[in-house]
């Protein structure tokens, strides 16, 4: 399949693995890129710019295909050292950056001067248009279904993607709720040039996370995610567990008096305990509604090949066969 996204990033298939905290290590990114998609290292999971440089170098040892680095702009007072992260990415010879959180205005000149392609992930048409205006090469349009931060507009991809298609001039991929060949063909029917997946890629053989995380994804249904931190306007879609139910109880009890400090135990620093140690009740971890469509743990190559095979079959047989 040849689309604006495969051409832009020099990849074989229009499938991207979005940045994921404590999942987006070199092993994950390289496995997706070697399977013909675009894998992504998550910059903020690395404690220092030196660690990030090392992670980029490790990824280059594992693949000679293009891969991306995700820079997430967090709503935090103690901002990470973004200039140092950008410098490390440029010096590491990375060709693609995925930005998210806030728009990347502050880093665009540096990335563009280095010839890096930028795909910005956002959750609305207005943010997509802003990304286009500031010179992003593509957008990842993240619907309400998505794992992680769906924003506050609550527009699912069935509406958001055609709205983006009507307004955007730069290419975009669907993000949130994507799992298989049906997702890819549906996204493309709505105007996307490919798809971005998070949750689906965690349940793969190569994902460098504890087996408990993969098993939890396979066991869960589409009813098992919750939205947390909505009262703080920092909504996150997570897998439900004891800690999340406790967090939601606090949200109900405190109402608009809720502060971040009230829920710190359930959200701060929990990722290593979940992703590395497999302590599945340690706290809130991002997970999309798409868990309801995930029933196995294939290799990235098997997953990508299956998606492309299904997409091919749907387009050439099921859809064309239904034309009268
Ligand atoms: C465990 C997990 C961690 C994530 N961490 C980040 C992150 O650090 N930065 C980011 O931009 N997106 C993050 N995301 C969002 C994904 O990149 C992607 O946009 C999202 O998962 C798409 O929705 P899906 O899970 O339905 O495929 C995360 C998602 C998951 C599931």
TrEMBL record:
- Domain of life, per lineage: Bacteria
InterPro entries from the UniProt entry: Aldolase_TIM, NMO
| Molecular-function GO term, any one | monooxygenase activity
Q: What is this protein called?
A: Nitronate monooxygenase family protein
Per the UniProt record, one Pfam family is NMO
Q: Which UniProt keywords apply?
A: Flavoprotein, FMN, Monooxygenase, Oxidoreductase
Q: Which organism is it from?
A: Ruegeria spongiae
PANTHER family this protein is in? 2-NITROPROPANE DIOXYGENASE, 2-NITROPROPANE DIOXYGENASE-LIKE PROTEIN
């Amino acid at each position: 399949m040849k689309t604006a996204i495969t051409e832009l990033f020099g990849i074989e298939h229009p499938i991207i693995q979005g940045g994921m905290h404590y999942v987006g290590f070199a092993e994950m990114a390289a496995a997706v890129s070697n399977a013909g998609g675009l894998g992504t290292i998550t910059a903020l999971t690395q404690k220092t710019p030196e660690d990030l440089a090392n992670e980029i170098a490790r990824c280059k040892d594992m693949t000679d295909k293009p891969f991306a680095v995700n820079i997430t702009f967090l709503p935090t007072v103690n901002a990470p050292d973004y200039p140092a992260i950008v410098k490390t990415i440029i010096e590491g010879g990375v060709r693609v950056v995925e930005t998210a959180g806030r728009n990347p205005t502050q880093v665009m000149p540096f990335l563009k001067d280095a010839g890096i392609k930028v795909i910005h992930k956002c959750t609305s048409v207005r943010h997509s248009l802003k990304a286009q205006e500031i010179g992003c090469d593509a957008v990842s349009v993240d619907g309400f279904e998505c794992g992680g931060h769906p924003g506050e507009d609550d527009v699912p991809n069935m509406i958001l993607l055609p709205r983006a298609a009507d307004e955007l001039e730069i290419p975009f991929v669907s993000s949130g709720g994507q799992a298989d060949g049906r997702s890819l063909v549906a996204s493309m029917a709505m105007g996307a040039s490919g798809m971005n997946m998070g949750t689906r890629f965690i349940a793969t053989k190569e994902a460098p996370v504890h087996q408990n995380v993969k098993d939890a994804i396979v066991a869960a249904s589409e009813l098992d995610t919750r939205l947390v931190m909505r009262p703080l306007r920092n909504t996150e879609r997570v897998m439900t567990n004891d800690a999340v139910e406790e967090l939601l109880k606090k949200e109900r009890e405190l109402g608009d008096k809720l502060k971040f400090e009230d829920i710190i135990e359930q959200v701060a620093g929990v990722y290593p305990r979940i992703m590395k140690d497999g302590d599945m009740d340690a706290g809130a971890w991002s997970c999309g509604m798409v868990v309801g469509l995930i029933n196995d743990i294939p290799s990235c190559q098997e997953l990508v090949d299956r998606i492309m095979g299904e997409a091919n079959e749907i387009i050439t047989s099921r859809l064309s066969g239904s034309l009268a």
